[in-house]
Amino acid sequence: MKLSRRQFGTALTGAAIAAAYGRPGWAQAPIVVKFSHVVANDTPKGKGSLKFKELAEKYTGGKVKIEVYPNSSLYKDKEEIEALQLGSVQVLGPSTAKFAPLGAKEFEALDLPWLFKDDATYDRAMKGELGKWLFKKLEPKGISGLAYWDNGFHMVSANRPLLETTDFQGLKVRISGSKIADRYFRDLGSIPQIMAFSEVYQALQTGVVDACENTPSNYVTQKFHEVQKHITVSYHAHLQYAVIVNSKFWNGLPADIRTQVDKAMAEASDYTNSIAQKENDDALAEIKKSGKTQLHYLTDAQRQKWHTAMAPTYKWAKSRVGQDVLDLVAKELDIKMN
Ligand code: LMR
User: Fold this and answer.
1) 8 Å CB contact between 151 and 215
2) Are 92 and 35 in contact (CB under 8 A)?
3) How far is ligand 1, taken at its centre, from the CA of residue 174, in Å?
4) Which atom of ligand 1 is nearest to the CA of 97?
5) Chain segment 279-333, per-residue pLDDT in tens
6) In this predicted model, what pLDDT tens digit does every residue of 214-253 receive, in sequence order?
7) How confident is the model at residue 164 (pLDDT cuts 50, 70, 90)?
């Protein structure tokens, strides 16, 4: 296997350590796999990546060493995608809202507001034709999709209650990357702004932005709830990740090792998807208990008004993500679209 300079450097360090402990050195040096992500360890994705590390190292008998870099400690949002393409990092789990720079805007269809009725509906769609079709879009870019990881539904927050659609007027809202999210916040009269995840807390604290959307596990681990006086538990859109790898690196792994890391990934994915909902329920309970913010819930009438206000995003989406993926989403979810 060909190692890049960076991988070579890390493998050498591994060998040096092994030699220092009196074990056979160079020939035994583990294959180092760097897994970079932007959230805390104590989140569904954080726990999933550590589970993958534990299982992959166990199943390969230490022939593979997974280095997990959480909290943007190695790369921030945009940089990590570039790093994956360059081979400086081997595994990522970005939100699918961040895939446009990879030339795969179709993933943004998943950000349509009020799209998935519940987590089970989301899960079925990603395990079906839709999930597979989207992964095919990555292949020409030298990227392979291994799994989808769930992180539940978005809430939305600001320093004023967000209940009526008019409450959004003029708010500067941080979004993570998707133009679909950009569009639905514009439908509500807000001014969305793409910003790296690692910069959000400070931007909220200093008023660079007024508002944001995210899932309870991300709010609590980043302390967003401490700098937002009001959170609406709207669950208006879904947050999902695609675990992606550099195809050349992954396909170049020795066959026996590849089988074991694929097995580790499949099990880590089941684990992550099985804990996502509870992690978010627990996080929401923690936010409530903290007393640092006020939680709000929409009435049916208010929710209906949000639906209506955001509906133009569905029409607009065709020009952004294309009709093919919208047709597929409609088919998988058995809904009428446009
Ligand atoms: C965000 O940027 O808000 C999220 O995508 C972060 C994450 O990975 O959950």
Assistant:
1) yes
2) yes
3) 11
4) 5
5) 999 999 999 999 999 999 999 999 999 999 999 999 999 999 999 999 999 999 9
6) 999 999 999 999 999 999 999 999 999 999 999 999 999 9
7) very high
- pLDDT value of residue 28: 73
CA-to-CA separations, 316 to 44, 46, 180, 183, in angstroms, rounded: 32, 34, 9, 8
Mutate to test the pocket of ligand 1, among 41, 95, 96 (most ligand atoms within 8 A of CB): 95
Pocket of ligand 1 (CB under 6 A): 38-39, 95, 151, 176, 197, 214, 218
Q: Looking at residue 84, what is its pLDDT? A: 96
Total-model pTM: 0.91
Kindly give the distance from the C-alpha atom of residue 95 to the centroid of ligand 1, in angstroms, as a whole number: 6
d(CA 176, ligand 1 centre) in Å: 6
Q: Which distant-in-sequence residues (6+ apart) come within 8 Å of 332 by Cβ?
A: 124, 125, 128, 129, 130
